[in-house]
Write the C-alpha cells for this entry.
Amino acid sequence: MANIIEIMKAHSSVRKFTDEVIPDKKIREFIEAGRAAGNWKNFQSYSVIIVKSIETKNAIYEAHNSISTKAVMSCSHFIVFVGDMNRAEKAVKLNGGDFQPAGVESILISSIDAALAAENVLLAAEADGFGGVMMGLLREKSVEISDILGLPDYTYPLFGIALGVPAKINPVKPRLPYETMVFNEKYVEQDESVIRAYDEVQSDYAGTRRLGSSWSSRIVEQWGKPEERSSTENLKAKKLL
Ligand SMILES: Cc1cc2nc3c(=O)[nH]c(=O)nc-3n(C[C@H](O)[C@H](O)[C@H](O)COP(=O)(O)O)c2cc1C
C-alpha cells in the first residue's frame, strides 16, 4: 500500500464513474475505517445511509434536477452522512434527563464528527483505487432529502459521498499558498492580492476545462446573497434550531 501521506496528497474529487459496482464488503470496510475517526466525547453523533438503489438515487437526483448532482446517478454507492442527535435523545430519556439539543453547538458537534468520519471513508476508498466526491449541495434540498431518507426528529442530512470506479481523474487541484492560510502563533489577515493571485492559479489549473467563472466569483455566488433556507427550515423542523 502506498504511503498514507502520498495518498492524502494525491486526492482529487472524481465526478465521472464507470459502470462497475464496488462490492458491498468493500463499502463496509471503508465505512468501518471512517468510523474509527475520533469524535466528540465518543458520542458518535452521526449516522450513515448507504444508497445504491436506482430508485433512491433517482429521487435524490430529481430533488435537485441539476448537473451538480449528476454524480449521484453514475456512482456505485452514494453514502449519505447524517448529523444525528436522535440517539442522544434516547440516552437522555433513559437517564431521566431533559433533552435540550437545540442550538449551534449540537450542529457543530454532529457536523464535525460526520466530516471527520467521511474524510476517512473517502481516503480509505482512494487508498483502494476507487474515487469519489463529497456532495454538500444536497442541503439545498434538505427538507426533501430528509423525506426521501426517512430522517426522524433530531437528524439532518449533511452531505453524501458519491463513490465508484473513476472514469476520469482530474489533476490534483492546487490549494492556496501555505503561507496565506497557515500562520505561526497568531492569525495574519491577508489582503486582496492573495485572492487575485489565487484566481490566476485556479484559472491556470482549470485550463480548457470550462468552469465559467473565477474562484472568487464563485465565492460571491455563495456569500454575496442571503443563504439558502432549506437547511435552516429543516433543522427547525427536526427540533435542532
Ligand atoms: C463537504 C463537501 C461538500 C462538497 N460538495 C460538493 C458538491 O455538492 N458538488 C461537487 O461537485 N463537489 C462538492 N465538493 C467537492 C469540492 O468541490 C472539492 O473537494 C474542492 O473543489 C476541491 O477539489 P478536490 O477535491 O478535487 O481537491 C464538496 C466537498 C466537500 C468537502
In short: The two ends are 44 Å apart (CA to CA). The longest strand covers residues 155-164. The CA atoms of residues 76 and 164 lie 5 Å apart. The chain has a mean pLDDT of 95.
